[in-house]
Design brief:
The chain is an all-alpha fold and about 160 residues long. The protein has a domain at about 65-155: Monooxygenase (Up-down Bundle), CATH 1.20.1280. It has helices spanning about 1-5, 35-40, 55-85, 90-100, 105-125, 135-155. Helix 5 (about 105-125) packs antiparallel against helix 6 (about 135-155). It is elongated, with a radius of gyration of 26 Å. The two termini are about 50 Å apart.
Length: about 160
């Protein structure tokens, strides 16, 4: 068993160390394209400046832009997924009014319920056991899937 575990070990994914920089005489030629691309790179996840660019005002501006982007993305997620909770209502109403659930797949609704519920629980765990906005929205989606699934089962059986 230990031989199998040893054989399956994957080396850690790490960033390679940047090549050492050599001091040279100033050149009249522009830097190579690879150097230009490296100097425009975003800061790494740990906030350190990318290789080839000092951590200064540009790094701070990148961090501010990233924080704003993440805030807008978080609110957009909340908005669209909250609207999705309401989007279940026409299906629920149609099943309730007609009393016929034969056109609705139990497998599909069970899958969506499971996906939303496990995502809510996963997000809760990733947030130190607290419900964040995203977990609450996924819990709302799971509850609407439960309601729809309940109606399908009620009228089918």
């Amino acid at each position: 068993m230990n031989a199998i575990a040893t054989a399956l070990q994957v080396p850690a994914l790490t960033r390679p160390a940047p090549a050492p920089m050599r001091a040279s005489a100033p050149s009249s030629t522009p830097p190579a394209p690879a150097t230009q691309a490296r100097t425009l790179a975003m800061p790494s996840r740990d906030g350190q400046a990318a290789a080839g660019r000092p951590a200064g005002a540009a790094g701070a501006a990148d961090r501010v832009l990233r924080e704003r982007y993440l805030a807008v993305l978080g609110w957009a997620f909340t908005l669209f997924n909250s609207v999705r909770v309401v989007a279940y209502l026409p299906t629920v109403w149609a099943i309730f009014q007609s009393g016929d659930s034969s056109q609705h797949s139990l497998w599909t609704w069970c899958t969506w319920l499971g996906a939303n519920l496990t995502m809510a629980l996963w997000l809760r765990e990733r947030n130190g056991g607290r419900f964040c906005r995203a977990a609450a929205v996924n819990l709302g989606n799971a509850s609407m899937c439960s309601l729809t699934l309940g109606l399908i089962l009620w009228f089918r059986f």
